[in-house]
Amino acid sequence: VHIDKGGPITPPTFGGKMHYELYVDEGTRYKWLFLLASKSESLANLKKFHVSVERQHDYKLKTIMTDNAKEYMSKELNAYCSGIGIQQLYTNPYSPEENCVVEKSNYTVMNKVRCMLQACGMDNRYWGEALSYVVYTENRSPTKALGGKTPFEALFGRKPNIDHLCPFGCTAFAFLETWTGNALERLD
């Protein structure tokens, strides 16, 4: 699994997130996204990811590849990985091409985020929602790396259902289960 961070991004999201961490599985090209308030959340994310992947997909996490950022070189992260048998690989300094699987993904997803926010005329504080949407749709889009399969298909063994997808930023309506107000009252 290739891992990389992006940020700080300003303005922060409405929830105060300023960074993101992207995980890309080399075999399936499936992407996992974590929005972060600070870079120090890396170990907690790796633990969540590890447990989730092994329980939900019966998938053994064997190797992670990162750059030499201090959060990936921490004693705590190293101890966690060595304790559960995860091999850590690092790129050489100033050599992002050595981790090109995730570096290219970072470049691509952020270009899409910028385009989507500009096309919709949305406030840049929605970058977290736009990024989540991009990762979600890329996991459900065919890729040459998998011979035309989707990362979702490679991971789950079935085609994804995309009937629910709408363009990012389109007008949407929320259904309110119970209504107790005046029929002519504004909801905003």
TrEMBL record:
Signal peptide: none annotated. This is Integrase catalytic domain-containing protein. GO terms for biological process: DNA integration; DNA recombination. The keyword Transferase applies. The keyword Nucleotidyltransferase applies. GO terms for molecular function: DNA-directed DNA polymerase activity; endonuclease activity; hydrolase activity; metal ion binding; nucleic acid binding; RNA-directed DNA polymerase activity. PROSITE patterns: INTEGRASE (PS50994). InterPro entries: Integrase_cat-core, Retrotran_Ty1/copia-like, RNaseH-like_sf, RNaseH_sf. Keywords: DNA integration, DNA recombination, DNA-directed DNA polymerase, Endonuclease, Hydrolase, Magnesium, Metal-binding, Nuclease, Nucleotidyltransferase, RNA-directed DNA polymerase, Transferase. Residues 1-159 form the Integrase catalytic domain. It comes from the Eukaryota.
